[in-house]
Amino acid sequence: MQSVVDNINKSEATTSLSRLVKISYDPYNEVVIKEYTYYPKPEALAATLTHCIQMGQPAVILWCEGVAFIPLALPPDTDVVAKEYLSGKIIWSSVMFTFMPNYQSNIKAGVIEVPVIDITPNETLRQVALWLKEKATQPSEQQNSLNRSRK
Question: Does residue 68 fall inside a structural domain?
Fold first, then answer.
C-alpha cells in the first residue's frame, strides 16, 4: 500500500512541477532619446505639466540621482516601433529635465502641485538620470549642430 501512496505523491509532484511557468528576465538594452531639454528650475519643469493636470490627465515627474525628468515615450503602436521595443529598445521622442539635488514628493507650479516619484531602484532609469546629468554639464549636441549649421 505504501508504494501506491509513494507513486501518487511522485505523480502529483511531477504534475505540479510541469505546471510551473517559465519566467525569463530580458531587460531593455538601450534607451534612445531623440531630443532633450534642460530647464533651469524644477518649477519651470513642473509648469510644463500643469495643463495636463488641469485637464485631468495623469502626470508625474520622475526623480533619481539629483535629476528630475519627464520622458515622452513613442507609443509602440506601429510595427516598426513595436519591433524596436521587443528587441530591447525604449524610444523616447523627448526628455525634459532639471537638477533637483534632494528628493521631494511634489513640485509646486503656481497653484498646482505636480507629484514626483523616486525611481532610484530602477537601474535603467537611474542610468538615464546619470546620462542627463552629464549632458546638462556639456554643451548639447543639438546646440553644437545648430552652431555648425550657422557657420
Answer: yes
